[in-house]
Design goal:
It is built from 11 helices and 2 strands, in the order ββααααααααααα. It is 71% helix and 3% strand. It has one domain. A two-stranded antiparallel ribbon has the order 1-2.
Amino acid sequence: MPDRQGGVVYTYAVMIPRFMLWQWLLGIISAFAIGTAKTGIPGLGSFVAPLMVLTVGDARYAAAWTLPILSTADIFAVFFWRKHADARKLFSLIPWVLVGMLVGGFALNLSERALRPLIGGVVLLMLGLHIARKRNPHAQVAGSPSFYGTVAGFASTIANAAAPVMNMYLLSRKLPKDQFVATGAWFFLVINLAKIPIYSWHHLFSRESMIFDLIMAPAVVIGALTGLWVVYKIPQRVFDLLIVVLTGISVIILFR
């Protein structure tokens, strides 16, 4: 007998979500974008949160359904970029990320209508800070590790939406492409694994979500391989501009 949860219809016989074709296509696009973002174009990850909300039908469940896909891509990215990471860029963020995750865990009790514009506002603020730095590199623009860390932990917990925040932070540290991707990969591997207890506490995982994630695994791998090829084809200036543009588009989607 069918059951409905978070806008998704299940059948107990096979435990596979009965999505419409367009929902499966959005899921595949999201998984591919996650893989590509983790190994080559971090800005693509900005699209994942809104696309997965449309796929699953509920922001809180979308976050949990996306987490195993993200973790798979994180492992892939860490393996390929393990020699380029600069972990020292992340040490000052750790305690503040934990604070943001704690606040985000409580915020998961808010309605979807309240969560999405909140995330969009955070991303918009970070984009403004980055543009200000680009226009005047010698100016002191507000944005300490405590600020970035807290916002990243919060946005990641409520919607897996910390990618734009971390993109702005790593760009502000003027990392070359290799270190940019590698350092971000390590950060998200750790933070995504740390979110498992939070989502479990809110009962956001299910057998259906795990089956969905397994089906999406090939798209993640293909995306990751695509990212490894693309990253060497894009000049540094175009790389930075692409991240800013994609981040701006993600803000528009989050506010819709």
